[in-house]
Amino acid sequence: MRRSFSALVLALLAATAVAVPAQAHAELKSSTPASGAVLDTPPRQVELTFSDVVSLPDGDAVTVTGPDGVTWPVTQSAAVDKVITAKFDTAVMRAGAHTLAWKAKSDDGDTIEGTFTFTVNLAAVPPASSASSAAAPSSVTMSAPVTNAAPPASRDSGGVPLWVWVLAGLVALVGAILLIRRRSTT
Ligand SMILES: [Cu+2]
Question: Is the pTM of this model over 0.85?
Answer without folding.
Answer: no
